[in-house]
Amino acid sequence: MNGALSTATIVAALVLAVWYLVRTALDRAPNRVDLIAAGVLTALVAVLVVVAVAGLFDGERPADTATFAGYLITTIGLVPTAAILAKMEPTRWGSLILGIGCLILPVLVLRLQQIASVTVA
Predict the structure, then answer these.
(1) Which of 16, 72, 89, 99 has the lowest tally of Cβ within 10 angstroms?
(2) Residue 61, SS3?
(3) pTM of the entire structure?
(4) Cα Rg for the chain, rounded, in angstroms?
């Protein structure tokens, strides 16, 4: 797992989480800019997942490849799912859905790093 890319993903997710939660507190529904920001975060996560999958082919694999794959699938699908649900809920709760999704993402990235650090040759 790329440390700088993981850090960038975590920071971006936390910044967006704060933004979405502030919008929730201000009783604002997610707008087009919020959904575009979620899309940019999804692109960043997609790059992270591609790098992680490419790392599987360099000779060292995580000790628990199935768990690692499950976290990869969850990580890539979390923000788009939150964005779809937020679009379906055009109230302040849509912003909350995006905020919670962005709060969960750093946990998933950290967990991916933990699993990737325990390797077998």
Answers:
(1) 89
(2) strand
(3) 0.90
(4) 15
